[in-house]
Specification:
Elements: H1 5-79, H2 81-97, H3 129-192, H4 199-206, H5 209-230, H6 241-250, H7 254-259, H8 261-272, H9 275-289, H10 293-297, H11 299-316, H12 325-359, E1 362-363, E2 376-384, E3 393-400, E4 403-410, H13 412-418, E5 428-436, E6 440-445, E7 456-461, E8 465-469, H14 473-509
Parallel strand pairs: 1-5
Antiparallel strand pairs: 2-3, 2-8, 3-4, 4-5, 6-7, 7-8
Helix pairs in contact: 1-2, 1-3, 3-4, 3-5, 3-9, 3-11, 4-8, 6-12, 11-12
Length: 512
């Protein structure tokens, strides 16, 4: 009759279980064989060293016997008995483990005392043909698993490279659109003064776009060329680390572009307020590009973090023994440092722009206000007790990392009248007190004892004490917290300067 399906299924299950058990036995046998090989190789190295020592001793004894006769050999044996006992011990050990067969008479001149016994080695393992077959099969399974794992990692790495080339091609095309459909037409407009576009607007909006585009084109060409070469060789031998390492050098050109990005977007927004320019740029976006100019300008800013993510995936899916692994790791480290430097540079550029913006609103403008270490923190309206017993005056505080400005805010309409009718919409600040926080000793909140001290805090300087009143307790606590942190930072800076000055004085006093 026909076979029962259930019986066939059971047979397959049994065969699968047998194969699994056989595989486990092969793995255990392979481990045992490796342990025995390590043990035998250790014994072989030790035995080889002892044989060399024995041959050196034999040559020395025979040489002395030829020169001085048996009497000299006996005398030498009696004088150097301890050294000969050591040789005898080594000789017995070699005889015990079967590594050396000493011919009769070779132990002449040695004392005939019994040496310390040595433990017998484990019995030698004899392998049958079936054992050898199982060993070979286990090794074949291990090699096959390693080969499959390596092929899987290489396939993933190829997919990541393909994704990188695809995204890089889209990125380069976006730069091309930005260059040919926006930058070049606006450059012609700046020469003819059309749509009120100036050369300064062009430099502000597009900055280093042309340089970034050239580098992106070069990088994409290198990737495509290397990918074409790798299709003709063994896939696991491909290399891209050197291309990434070279790219990290010219990616420094992104720094100036990224630092200028906020100013570019601000200027573009101002130009869009012109109806004629707005109509033209919307037509270009809809008919030629199909995307906003702002979305094209931001792509170089987003590119470096994406390089870091792609490199991380590529390193993760590249075997450690691969020839390109070390280069990829180095390129990833350089790219991370580059991304961190760009973020810090962008932060400093934004702080400098904020300082310049506030500096232009101050009347009068203080000297040496723009400093690389200075950055804006907080601003707000308070009431300032200028005179003892007098009514508090409304003032506007501007807090920076090392200075506090007490100002009077001038509305834009008042500034228009005071500036001879010049059109402006920016508020101005008349400077009253320029307080250097390095000269401030403490900042303390006051208890709410009455209406005079309610929501107040004081600022002690070397010359006088300043008292400010806030609208709410939360606002007072915020000012006190920010000022306290600024004072702590200033104290650390002063201590660092003192240490550097002391170190310089010590170096100057040292003799040449």
């Amino acid at each position: 009759g026909l076979p029962v399906p259930g019986s066939e299924r059971q047979e397959r299950v049994v065969r699968k279980r047998d194969l699994i058990e056989e595989n486990q036995k092969l793995v255990e046998t392979n481990k045992r064989l490796m342990a025995e090989v390590i043990h035998l190789s250790t014994q072989l190295r030790a035995s080889t060293a002892k044989v060399r020592q024995y041959e050196m001793w034999k040559a020395q004894v025979v040489g002395e016997g030829v020169q001085g006769g048996d009497s000299e050999v006996s005398a030498g044996a009696s004088q150097d008995g301890e050294q000969q006992k050591k040789w005898r011990k080594s000789l017995h050990e070699l005889q015990a483990i079967g590594d050396l067969r000493v011919a009769p008479g070779d132990d002449a001149g040695l004392p005939q005392e019994d040496s310390v016994g040595f433990a017998a080695p484990p019995p030698a393992v004899k392998y049958t043909a079936n054992d050898v077959k199982q060993i070979v099969r286990a090794q074949s399974i291990a090699r096959g698993w390693l080969q499959r794992r390596q092929s899987k990692l290489c396939r993933k790495a190829d997919l990541i490279i393909g994704e990188l080339i695809e995204t890089e091609s889209s990125y380069w095309q976006a730069l091309q659109k930005c260059f040919f459909f926006f930058m070049k037409p606006m450059e012609r407009m700046s020469k003819t003064k059309k749509l009120r576009v100036t050369e300064r607007d062009l430099r502000t909006i597009f900055s280093e776009l042309q340089v970034v585009k050239l580098y992106a084109e070069s990088f994409l060409g290198e990737l495509q060329h290397r990918r074409a070469l790798n299709e003709m060789v063994v896939r696991r031998e491909h290399r891209y680390g050197d291309i990434f390492a070279t790219m990290t050098h010219f990616c420094r050109s992104y720094t100036s572009y990224i630092n200028n990005y906020n100013a570019a977007i601000t200027r573009l927004y101002a130009l869009r307020q012109n109806p004629e320019f707005s109509i033209w740029i919307e037509k270009q976006e809809a008919e030629q590009v199909g995307d906003k100019l702002e979305s094209l300008l931001i792509q170089p800013v987003q590119r470096i973090p994406r390089y870091v993510l792609l490199l991380q995936d590529l390193v993760k899916n590249t075997p450690a023994f691969h020839a390109d692994y070390k280069s990829l790791v180095e390129a990833l480290q350089r790219m991370r440092v580059l991304a961190a430097d760009m973020n810090e540079s962008k932060r400093q550029a934004e702080c400098m722009q904020q300082l310049l913006k506030i500096y232009r609103t101050l009347l009068p403008q203080p000297e040496n206000f723009i400093q690389p270490h200075r950055h804006y923190l907080l601003q707000g309206k308070v009431f300032f007790h200028k005179d003892e017993g007098g009514a508090p005056k409304k003032r506007y505080l501007l807090l920076f990392s090392d200075v506090l400005l007490v100002t009077v805010k001038i509305k834009a309409r008042k500034h228009i009248a005071a500036s001879g009718g010049k059109e402006t919409t920016t508020d101005k600040f008349r400077l009253e007190i320029f307080a250097n926080l390095r000269n401030v000793t403490s900042v303390l909140p006051l208890a709410d004892l009455d209406e005079v001290t309610k929501n107040c805090f004081i600022l002690d300087t070397k010359r006088k004490t300043l008292m400010f009143m806030c609208a709410t307790p939360e606002e007072r606590d915020r000012w006190v917290s920010m000022l306290t942190r600024c004072l702590e930072r200033c104290e650390r800076e002063k201590e660092r300067e003192v240490r550097e000055l002391a170190a310089n004085d010590t170096t100057a006093m040292m003799p040449p």
